[in-house]
Design a protein that fits this description.
With 70 residues, the chain is α+β, with helices and mostly antiparallel strands. Helices cover 37% and strands 17% of the residues. It has two helices and two strands. The radius of gyration is 13 Å and the shape is globular.
Amino acid sequence: MTTLVVLDQGESISISFDDLLKYHGRSSIAGVAHAFKAMERAFPLLSPGGPPERYDITVESGFPGGGARD
């Protein structure tokens, strides 16, 4: 299974789909799957030299509020 890799202040962190489910829960599992696949595709394009720094990642969406963070 694929894992996502990000950096947290230079330290590598691997995140699996199961890790996301443990954090988010299964109430919106399709949304978790969609987010995972989007990040899987986007990270190599946004940070071709290696994993992106975790706090440099932002998502712009149609959510009408001031922002959402999971």
